[in-house]
UniProtKB/TrEMBL annotation:
<protein>
    <submittedName>
        <fullName>Hydrogen peroxide-inducible genes activator</fullName>
    </submittedName>
</protein>
<dbReference type="Pfam" id="PF03466">
    <property type="entry name" value="LysR_substrate"/>
</dbReference>
<dbReference type="GO" id="GO:0003677">
    <property type="term" value="F:DNA binding"/>
</dbReference>
<keyword id="KW-0805">Transcription regulation</keyword>
<dbReference type="InterPro" id="IPR005119">
    <property type="entry name" value="LysR_subst-bd"/>
</dbReference>
<dbReference type="InterPro" id="IPR000847">
    <property type="entry name" value="LysR_HTH_N"/>
</dbReference>
<keyword id="KW-0238">DNA-binding</keyword>
<keyword id="KW-0804">Transcription</keyword>
<feature type="domain" description="HTH lysR-type">
    <location>
        <begin position="6"/>
        <end position="63"/>
    </location>
</feature>
<dbReference type="GO" id="GO:0032993">
    <property type="term" value="C:protein-DNA complex"/>
</dbReference>
<dbReference type="InterPro" id="IPR036390">
    <property type="entry name" value="WH_DNA-bd_sf"/>
</dbReference>
<comment type="similarity">
    <text>Belongs to the LysR transcriptional regulatory family.</text>
</comment>
<dbReference type="Pfam" id="PF00126">
    <property type="entry name" value="HTH_1"/>
</dbReference>
<dbReference type="GO" id="GO:0003700">
    <property type="term" value="F:DNA-binding transcription factor activity"/>
</dbReference>
<dbReference type="InterPro" id="IPR036388">
    <property type="entry name" value="WH-like_DNA-bd_sf"/>
</dbReference>
Length: 298
């Protein structure tokens, strides 16, 4: 057995560099100076006796062996996180630090109703929130940057456990007095694909909306442009088309002070399941289920 082993910090620096592909951004994400991060990675290379990263003035390129080491480092860091979770799970439930990623089509509409009560009733819980698209949030979960994720299903999550929070209906939003004003309940066949505005890649709501309509041509003709639901609402309010919104956003007042009407979509798939997910076999599973109960009670 080698006398000298890589440190957790060295592996964290290497993973951060691989994720950001830039020494400055990786150092910023690691809360250290660029020289500290660079020195840590060089120490790791010296320790292992190999080159993991090819450096030039403009390009950071990982060697094939470097990519293999990064993959292994992800697993080791996740194991270290789970060791910490094991210790924390032995203490009082919902106390200490908990890192939760939340997707942007949920965060501003659900959390304001829940967090004040959670802070009041669980004062020992230090909840660190990070807003990410579904894909990035799931990646953060499996790489140990997040302990749990609040997102909408269905979505490809890998090996996780989950707890359902609620169902959320999809609605069609369009300008008031639109000459093509649909009836009280909108059928997917009545949606003009040339006017449909959806969120860009990376947002699961886009896939949920397309699945609800079950019209393949919408995928080709819909405008994938919005970076947020608020952006889409502003575009619809300016007469640029129509969009789909989750009912929780409508109920939270996203259409306030606009000239937009929102009506239910008549489709068996016109809803999404809001759920809390976490890594399978996590020692904090019971704690996450308790958190899910708190979120349902909000």
């Amino acid at each position: 057995m080698s006398t000298y082993l890589p440190t957790i910090k060295q592996l964290q620096y290497l993973v951060a560099l691989h994720e950001h592909n830039h020494f400055g951004r990786a150092a910023e994400a690691s809360f250290v100076s660029q020289s500290t991060l660079s020195a840590g990675i060089r120490e790791l290379e010296t320790l292992l006796g190999v080159t993991l990263v090819e450096r030039s003035r403009r390009v950071v390129r990982f060697t094939p062996l470097g990519n293999q080491v990064v993959a292994k480092a992800h697993r080791l860091l996740r194991e270290a996180e789970e060791l910490s979770d094991l210790v924390q799970a032995s203490g009082k439930p919902l106390s200490g630090e908990l890192r939760m990623s939340v997707i942007p089509t949920i965060a501003p509409f659900l959390l304001p109703k829940i967090l004040p009560r959670l802070r009041r009733e669980r004062p020992q819980l230090k909840l660190f929130l990070r807003e990410e698209t579904s894909g990035d949030a799931v990646e953060s979960l499996h790489h140990g940057r997040a302990d749990c994720v609040l997102l909408a299903l269905p979505f490809a999550t890998g090996e996780v456990e989950s707890a359902k929070i609620c169902d959320d209906e999809l609605m069609v939003a369009f300008p008031k007095d639109d000459p093509r004003d649909p009836p009280e309940i909108v059928s997917p066949g009545s949606i003009d694909e040339g006017r449909l505005l959806l969120l860009e890649d990376g947002h699961c709501l886009r896939e949920h909306a397309l699945a609800a309509c079950n019209r393949p041509e919408l995928r080709d003709n819909a405008t994938m442009i919005g970076t947020s639901l608020h952006t889409l609402v502003q575009m619809v309010d300016n007469g640029l088309g129509l969009t789909m919104l989750p009912r929780m956003a409508v109920d939270a007042g996203i259409l306030r002070d606009t000239d937009i009407v929102a009506r239910p979509l008549k489709s068996k798939n016109a809803n999404r399941e809001i759920a809390l997910i976490w890594r399978r076999n996590s020692p904090r599973s019971a704690e996450f289920r308790l958190l899910a109960e708190e979120l349902r009670a909000g």
